[in-house]
Every structure is written in structure tokens, then in C-alpha cells.
Amino acid sequence: MYHPFSVTETLSIAWHILKRNFATIAVYSLIAFIIVGGLAFLIYYIITDDVLSKIGLAALVAGVSFIFLGFIKLVFILIDKELYDFDFSDIVPKIKMLISYLILLVIVSTLAVFMTRSIDKLNESLIQSILGIFIGLFFQFFFLFYFPICTCFIVDDDSGPFESVAQSFRLIKGNFLKYFLLFILIEAMVFVGTITVLGMIFVIPFVNILLVVAYRKLVYSHMDVDDDITETV
């Protein structure tokens, strides 16, 4: 039956998915941590050439993005195929997904840097300070609030970078306050998780599971169809 978007239900479903698939998620997270840590160590401590370091840094960003998209795809599979087996190939992101994600990431990051530097060139004044704070908060808010939903559209709907932004705005519309409440809870979880390394290892996967579940719940809230994710929990 039809179910409207609910923060408490979203939290409950995300926790259920984490508990039921803890081993799978833990193994993926551990492998991802080792790969990213190894690449970062290689780039910052082994490679000394500036050109190679820049190439390595670009490769690191692409690698982290690839692993992150793979995790998001894994969560979708755990939601949609909870009672079925799946292969490793099922969680490998498509090249189009990676390109769309990187394009969106680069465009938003470039805009943020460009606008910040443009404001810094203004004469020091109250207006400059206000604009600086506003621009900083705007891009932080977009990255933390809308960007995760854009990522879900890129993975789940094979959307392009610009299409995913338009889709995310439409999806959150009508449930803004509820999603904002979930956003505040996620920020609180991340803050608590940063106290210890173990906390972050647990919080980061759970937060991403929570965001994928929120996306799927928001999609169902806009459709007059059975809410499969709720019915299976």
C-alpha cells in the first residue's frame, strides 16, 4: 500500500538493512578503507614528482568516487534483492555513472572555488563577509543536502549530472521539512562519529545506507504504488 515519507520509518529500515547485511557491508567497507588508505599513502609519502603526484591525486578522487558509487549500488541491491544472491559484477558501477558523478562533482566544486575567490577579491567590507558566509553555506548545504540524492539518481536511474540535480529538487519538494529533519539527524550522527575512528567506520556506511533508503522512500512517496521497501521490513 502507499506510504508517505517518514523519518522514523526511514531510520528503522536503514538499521534493519545494516543489521541484516552487516557482514557484507563490513567486508566492503574494510576493503574500501584499505584501498583508499593504500592509494593515499602512495601518493602523499612515496611519489615525490609533482606531476605524478597530481596525476595520482586525480586517480585517487576517481578511485574514491568509484568505490563510493559501488557502495551505493550495493545498498540498492540489498534493498531490492534482499532475499536473492548477487555477484560482485552487480555492484560494479558503470563508466557512465562514474563520469556523471565526477562531472557534477567537478562543476559544483569549481563553481564554489570560483565564487569564493571572486568574493575574496572584493574590498574588505561587511558585504564581502556576508557574501562569503552565504556562498560557503550554500555550497556546503548543496553538497550535504542535495548531492546525495543526485548520486542516488545517477546510480539508480542512470541519470546524467544535470538531470540528477533537477530530479533531486523535484523529489525533495513536498517533503523538504521531513528531509531537513533527517539531514539534521545525519549531521548529529557524523559529529558524534568523528569523536573516534571506530565511530566514523560505523557512521559513514550507516549514513549512506540511510540516504539511499530516504531516496527510495521519497520516490515511493511521489508514486501511488506499493512501498516494497516498507513491506519487506
Q: Total helix count?
A: 9
Low-confidence stretches: none
Helix content: over 70%
* Strand runs, count: 0
Q: C-alpha Rg, in Å? A: 19 Å
> What is the terminal-to-terminal distance?
14 Å
Mind explaining what this structure looks like?
With 233 residues, this protein is mainly alpha-helical. It has one domain (7-231). Helices cover 80% and strands 0% of the residues. Helix 1 crosses helix 8 and helix 5 crosses helix 6. The longest helix is centred in the first third of the chain and has 31 residues, at 50-80. 23% of the residues are buried.
Short note summarizing the structure:
By secondary structure, the protein is mostly helical. Helix content is 80%, strand content 0%.
Protein topology:
Elements: H1 7-20, H2 22-46, H3 50-80, H4 95-120, H5 126-156, H6 161-172, H7 176-193, H8 197-221, H9 228-231
Helix pairs in contact: 1-8, 2-3, 3-4, 3-5, 3-8, 4-5, 5-6, 7-8
Annotation keywords:
233 residues, mainly alpha
